[in-house]
Design goal:
Length: 147
Amino acid sequence: MKEKYLIVILIFAAIVSCKNPGTERSQNLVLKANVEQLEPNAKEAVKKWDGYLALERTIILISNTNALNAVDMRNKLAENCDSMTKNIPENLEFPEIKDQVRKVKEEVNEFYAEVNRDEIRERVVEDHLKTIYQAFDTLNKEINHIM
């Protein structure tokens, strides 16, 4: 019996020791989807756009998980998208950017409406995520173009 406890403790200690203290996993993640990155002047322009930054972080998290795990993040995705839509900074209030933000919101809303927790077809979820990534990519391209 003592041997079992010792083995459990050793396994637990090994797992805990593998953790890299002081870093958050989400901060180390990179966007795995094919989305254009913002150029330096565009990054500066979105620096105070909290909704955009929150949506970007959520998209990064989703792109680093499998499609079925992404279903659990759909509420956060929808909330971040709503926030992004409502709080476009003055320096980015161009019709082209507003149009791309609207398209991202449409894709997120479609994902939210059509995919639920009981969704077992991973391909359907992946297709929805692909369209969200494409819409976000187009938004980034438009921001880069204008800035």
